[in-house]
Amino acid sequence: MSGTLIIISIATFLLGGAIAWVIMRYVLKSKYEAKLKEAEKEAEVIKKNKLLEVKEKFLHLKADLEKQVAQRNAKIQSVEAKLKQRELSLNQRHEELQRKNSEVEAVKENLASQLELVEKKKQDLERMHQKEVEHLETISGLSANEAKERLIESLKDEAKTQAASYINEIVEEAKMTANKEAKKVVIQSIQRVATETAIENSISVFHIESDEIKGRIIGREGRNIRALEAATGIEIVVDDTPEAIVLSGFDPVRREIARLALHQLVQDGRIHPARIEEVVTKVKKQVEDEIVETGKRTAIDLGVHGLHPELVRMIGKMKYRSSYGQNLLQHARETANLCAIMAAELGLNPKKAKRAGLLHDIGKVPDDEPELPHAILGMKLCEKYKEKPDICNAVGAHHDEVEMQTLLAPIVQVCDAISGARPGARREIVEAYIKRLNDLEQLALAYPGVVKTYAIQAGRELRVIVGADKIDDKQTESLSTEIAKKIQDEMTYPGQVKITVIRETRAVSYAK
Q1: Residue 185: pLDDT over 50
Q2: The whole model's pTM is what?
Q3: Which of 233, 320, 411, 504 would you call most buried, defined as having the most Cβ atoms within 10 angstroms of its Cβ?
Q4: For the chain, what is the total number of helices (H) and then of strands (E)?
Q5: Residue 328 binned pLDDT confidence (cut-offs 50, 70, 90)
Q6: Of 410, 244, 419, which Cα lies nearest the Cα of 324?
Q7: Measured CA distances, 399 to 385, 403, 445 (Å)
């Protein structure tokens, strides 16, 4: 009985354990299923969020792509329109050219027929002339050569008489106006050293300590250099040149503003578009103030008073211009002083001459760039700002572009030439200088009878050696004149070139 109870107890215990295990398994299963459902819901939510993010990114990318495509299409359409316009223009030019060619052909045919007619008339005229000459010879009883000799003798006597009376009249007139004519002769003799209008420098070089600064000046994706170019109006070239940046532009004031702004930015270290605009604005104000101050100081130093403020500002701008390396302001000051000295020597007003010399190149520094020679533009500026007529005429006539009306004008022309042509005033590129000397020598060497040529005194004198057996003394004078005229017509040079033709006979023998 007790064994049965034990078995029953054991069975009951096992049954209870089994029931508990089943119940626990059921509970655990229900919890697991609940968590699994919750995880599936969270996964579904995450999936939807990710899909939404991907869809949003896709829409953004699609919009950007459509914008780029639209811009590219717009550019393509613009290029197509330009090409169509250019094609239309070319077609019109082609038609115009064909029309002009047909007109030229018609003119050629007409000219050829007229030439034939002229040739026939010329032959008829020659025949008639010959008949008349023969008829006159039979009537006069003289040949054509005898008649010519008699006519020449009579003309010689008449010409000698007229020349003697004409010389006497000139001498008497020269005695009456000797002082005035002497002044003109002095001025005209100096005018022969006149030089050409100066060229412009169009680049400046900004030196930096190391090439690392180039990257900071360029900026991310080039934004700094673009901002600097937009603010100054100057092209900035950053290339492989070590420790140097090139500033390119035709306005010297803008180049100076860009150079000073770069200097301040590099020293400060803060280089970004906002800072660039701030520094450029500040430097522009500084340069404008310095220009006005320079103009005032120059006028005071030279004793030129009563100038219009705008003319004073333009004089200050000359500080940033140069001609063959000669500073324009220095050239103007030097010309003004030379004008005053020469006017005093000739008995004219030195103050007026100094004023005209200072203003003679004012047309090289206008605020706008009209298509006028600088002398004419300077004259118009002087007239605009109420300068006296003789000053305006001297400014406009210093390159012979208007007629000289007073003795002040040639004085300004001469002093401008003296200031530019003096040794050391202007520089030339070595290659251009050597080429000019070679061209001088080769030009003279091409004449017959020339043995050797030497360009001396920095190209201001050309000595030509000719063979004594090939050219006589009279021909040397004409050869010198011909070479001078050819140099004047074909070459460009500062000042004047003296041509000296040397002809000599040498007798050489040897004592043995």
Answers
A1: no
A2: 0.45
A3: 411
A4: 15, 8
A5: confident
A6: 419
A7: 21, 10, 32
